[in-house]
Each structure stands twice: as C-alpha cells, then as structure tokens.
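Q: Got a minute? One more chain.
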Amino acid sequence: MRHLVYYVAVSIDGFIAEPDGGYDPFLIEGDHNSVIFGEYADALPGHVQRAVGIQSTNTTFDTVIMGWNTLLPALDAGITSPYPHLRQVVASRRAREVDPAVELTNDPLATVRALRQEEGADIWLCGGGELAGALLPAIDRLVLKRHPVVFGSGIPLFGGVAFESRAFTRTVVREFSSGVAIEEYARTGS
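A: Always. Here it is, folded:
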C-alpha cells in the first residue's frame, strides 16, 4: 500500500509559512539541497526542475495533494499545473476552476484513502497546514525540513485540528552545515 508522506519545510517553532503565506525566511541555498534535489526531486515544481536541469523519476512520489492556498502562488505566477510530472490533487471546500491536469476534491480524506489503495509510489502531502490537520489520521510519514528560523506566528504545521493525539517515531535525523535538519518520522501503531 502507498503511504501519505507530509514532506514540508518548517520553522523551529512549527510554522510552514508566515501569516501571509510567505516562506522567504526558509533557506534556499545550502548543503541540505543535496537531499532536496536528490532524494526528493519528485517534489520540485516542473519549472524548477527545468531551471536546474533535474528530471524527476517519480520513484519517491507520483502523486501530490495540496490545499488551495498552497496552489495559489503558482496560479499567481501564471503556472496552472505546477507539478506536471505528478498526478496533482487540490483540496478545496468550494468549486474552483483548475487546469485539466489538476483534480479537485472537497473530501481530501476519502480521496487519500482511495489513492492509498492504488498501485504506485507514495503520495506527497505538499501543504498547507489546515489540510495536514484534516489528513492527520492518514499520514504515514513526516519528512520535516526544519530550518533555523523562528517565525513567531504563521501557518502551523498542523492547523485547524481539534485535539487529536497521533504518535510518530523519529527514524532519521540528518543535520547540515546550513543549519537545516531533515527529520523523518513514521506513524506509530495503526
């Protein structure tokens, strides 16, 4: 069975973006990029892959699910299909017009449960925090790119969730001279 993997950049204090959705404080250069451009190349947008001369293999991820607000920056830049190498699913509570290459869902938990039953590589939960909160019962793994910055406020790693405890076991921590640490966790129990 495929896994749902929440792979995301996060601040020391647990925010995936600034209050306005910005992510400029995250480090875009550094030795941590060897992992981002290597192991997680599937999670790079198509235009970034072209710019840096990388072609994804879709062996890590072949599907991405994201919230509407996560898609908005791409749309604002005129990019209607940011991950053309992946099956793209966008969660929204409202009907929206999307590129024909993008699927829209208003029931992300049911969609992920169905996707997990299909053959293929893992499913990447791209963001945002509110969607991650809604999908918490289905998240199998966390891959957190923890950056050495404090936001103070912003979009939390898991937003909009009534208290729900989920246990994860840390499986790997890789620290880089850039100050970024990539932490991996696996869901504990069922």
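A: The CA atoms of residues 108 and 114 lie 10 Å apart.
Q: Perfect, thanks.
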